[in-house]
Amino acid sequence: MAARVPPTPKRPRKVTGRRPGRENSRGAILDAARARFARSGYEGTTIRGIAADAGVDPALVMQFYRNKEGLFLAILEQHANLTAPLRAVLAGPQEGMGARFTRAYLELWEHPISGDKLRSLIRATIGSPRATQMFQDLVKGVVTKSDIPVARRVSSALAVTHLLGAAISRYILEVPVLVELPLDELVHLVSPAIERYLNAE
Fold first, then answer.
1. For 22-67, CATH number?
2. Do 83 and 164 form a contact (C-beta atoms < 8 A)?
3. Second-level CATH architecture of 79-198
4. Do the Cβ atoms of 86 and 118 come closer than 8 Å?
């Protein structure tokens, strides 16, 4: 009687689909990139350094975003959503718009999450022509697609420029006299100038 041949053990079936933690890895990469760009600027940041901070392989960063430009643009696109409160103010009633616009803008910087994103963005773009160009291109796209009337875009740009100077001085350069100023008082002092910009013909 022939000896019985034992059956060949089945190979474990290969699991397909997304790897566990893929979206968590994407978020970790973006968080690490924001921190790196804020600390080292655009030119001084590398994919390898971001990957090390996020605890992933550099190849995964490239898979998600292709290169450093793609990663920086992904961060910029997240920042584009921050303008929603400002657009809502500009689409509202004219009376008191300067104070509402000033408060909405400064509250973005005061908030721990949006403020961190804005500080990272400014630090990354300063001193990098390429990063500045990408930022400008994104802003143009947001403005041209927004519901802000064309006649108000120049005045709102001037208002934002004025507020940006105040924000950089308070939240990045941390000028003591401005850091110590309560938010309500800062809004009270700055909003008349913003009102003039937004009411300009």
1. 1.10.10.60
2. no
3. Orthogonal Bundle (1.10)
4. no
The string of DSSP letters for 116-143 reads HHHHHHHHHHTT-HHHHHHHHHHHHHHH
Give DSSP secondary structure letters for the chain: -PPPPPPPPPPPPPP-SPPTTHHHHHHHHHHHHHHHHHHHTTTT--HHHHHHHHTS-HHHHHHHHSSHHHHHHHHHHHHHGGGHHHHHHHTS-STTHHHHHHHHHHHHHHSHHHHHHHHHHHHHHTT-HHHHHHHHHHHHHHHHHSSS-HHHHHHHHHHHHHHHHHHIIIIIS--HHHHSS-HHHHHHHHHHHHHHHHT--
> Which residue, 35, 25, 38, 37, is CA-closest to 68?
37
One-letter amino acid of 159: A
Q: What is the pTM of this model?
A: 0.71
Q: How far apart are alpha carbons 197 and 73 in whole angstroms?
A: 30
Token pair, residue 63, equals 């898979």
Sequence spans of domains, the chain:
22-67, 79-198
pLDDT digits (tens, 9 = 90+) for 8-67: 545 444 333 334 457 789 999 999 998 898 888 888 999 999 999 999 999 999 999 999
Residues making up the chain, counted from first to last: 201
Cα 67 to chain centroid distance, Å, stands at 18
